[in-house]
Amino acid sequence: MADQLTVIVLAAGGGTRMKSKTMKVLHPIGGRSMIGHVLAAVSGVEPTRVCAVVGHQREQVAPHIHECMPEAVLAVQDEQLGTGHAVRVALDALDEQQVTPVGGTVLIAYGDTPLLEGRTLRWFAAEHEAAQAAVSILSGVVDQPKGYGRIVRDDEGDVLAIVEEKDATDEQRAIREINSGILAFDCDFLTDAIGRIGNDNAKGEYYLTDTVQLARAAGLTVTAFPVEDVWQTEGANDRAQLAALGRELNRRIVTRWMENGVTVMDPETTWIDADVVLAEDVTILPGTQLLGETIVGEDAVIGPDTTLDDCEVGVGARVVRTHGQMAVIGAGATVGPFSYLRPGTILGARGKIGAFVETKNAQIGDGAKVPHLSYVGDAEIGEGTNIGAGTIFANYDGVKKHRTKVGKHARTSSNNTFVAPVTIGDGAATGAGTVVRRDVPPGALAVSMGQQRNLPGWAQTKRAGTPQAAAAEAAESLPSESDD
Ligand code: UD1
Ligand code: CA
């Protein structure tokens, strides 16, 4: 490789066909922005420097690029006068900001090609350098060349020019080899040629692709390398293309995990983001989305119908029909069906969060269980404790949130309310329907319900004339067991 490799990423265009308040390159796909994927691929070639050209909605785009790649130089193109102009703006910005002059190879990429891979860029740069070319084109042979610049070759197969769709003759339009947009330049040639590009064409733009003719006129080498995997250079211009690229990206990610020892029962309905990490022998059942930076340990079974976003799932855990966000599920734990794990949920090893349970900011100890129909917010539950069905951790007094602490090996009964802040000690117990407002000492049984009172004949007098009263009367006229 050359001593210096500069990558320029073009991302100043408007992307109006997205019809969105969000700038095109910021649209998410596979858990990252489109430009986030491109910058990840660019990092893969370990460039000397990277410059991103921003323009449209740069108040959104610039901070995002800075976040993805803090070292990238940002160049501002106020008016989008064409790809050639964009590259000139980038070279000027690099000239201003770099201590050393730019030399070696310059690669041009676009910010909206999310399937691009680092190894493709590396291969292309190496081919370009080996050919000692002034310009190299990453081309592609496609069935639908419409909209692309066509690669015009002579009888020997040497590249003569790139002709844009709008400027092409009918004969040129029939050419199926297209310019992907990814180009490699000898830096000295590019610096000289970029100022000599005109805008006398159908679009009135400064076409970067005109450098090809300039190189040819100077007797320099121009090469084109067709990429086999054309998905990698495909851009998303509208939402339908975004969805198509998203499906293909997902297919690739899911396939890679299967190759790495993950069982995926239904690849079609399984969605895995680019930054997810799965161990061997994980099983994913249909209708499952693993998003963000979710990590799943060996032998865990996830799904069906489960979404986990930025979650951590321990070895051998079982998660069924669950929605989880920023939650940690311990080794061998079970979650679901129909559980909602909100941020800050930490379930210990072999613990359980069962059906219709919502948790938030809740540490649930090893082997502790919240099996049914409960809300657990701002809580700490000790190891081995069992929370009864239908328990509400009442964490909110209408103004502030408060915490509840339940000790180890406690047994709380059904339909309890724990009014925070409150503490239930180790080994304590509660009766059914208890409203715990005061701390319960270790080992104590807390009951808050009064003695049950029965008011005989209440329905017959207070609900006279209703089916309820009639049913009560009918039951009264039957001989009861106590009449014997
Ligand atoms: C360009 C190529 C064409 C190629 C196609 C591949 C030129 C003249 N044409 O055409 O040969 O087949 O890409 O998709 O280069 N941009 C800027 N500033 C500008 C103009 C564009 O940053 O002033 C950025 C856009 O945001 C986009 C990229 O450059 O990411 C390509 O621009 P676009 O206008 O889409 O070029 P095409 O006409 O598609
Ligand atoms: Ca385009």
Automatic annotation (TrEMBL):
The active site is at H372 (proton acceptor). Binds 1 Mg(2+) ion per subunit. Pfam families: NTP_transf_3. Its EC number is 2.7.7.23, 2.3.1.157. Acetyl-CoA binds at A389, N395, Y396, S414, A432. Residues 261-484 are annotated as: N-acetyltransferase. GO terms for molecular function: UDP-N-acetylglucosamine diphosphorylase activity. Mg(2+) binds at D112, N237. The keyword Cytoplasm applies. Residues 451-484 are annotated as: Disordered. Residues 1-239 are annotated as: Pyrophosphorylase. Coiled coil: none annotated. Pathway: Nucleotide-sugar biosynthesis; UDP-N-acetyl-alpha-D-glucosamine biosynthesis; UDP-N-acetyl-alpha-D-glucosamine from N-acetyl-alpha-D-glucosamine 1-phosphate: step 1/1; Nucleotide-sugar biosynthesis; UDP-N-acetyl-alpha-D-glucosamine biosynthesis; N-acetyl-alpha-D-glucosamine 1-phosphate from alpha-D-glucosamine 6-phosphate (route II): step 2/2; Bacterial outer membrane biogenesis; LPS lipid A biosynthesis. Its cofactor is Mg(2+). UDP-N-acetyl-alpha-D-glucosamine binds at residues 10-13, 24, 77, 82-83, 110-112, 149, 164, 179, 237, 342, 360, 375, 386. In the N-terminal section; belongs to the N-acetylglucosamine-1-phosphate uridyltransferase family. PANTHER family: BIFUNCTIONAL PROTEIN GLMU, NUCLEOTIDYL TRANSFERASE. Homotrimer. HAMAP family: GlmU. This is Bifunctional protein GlmU.
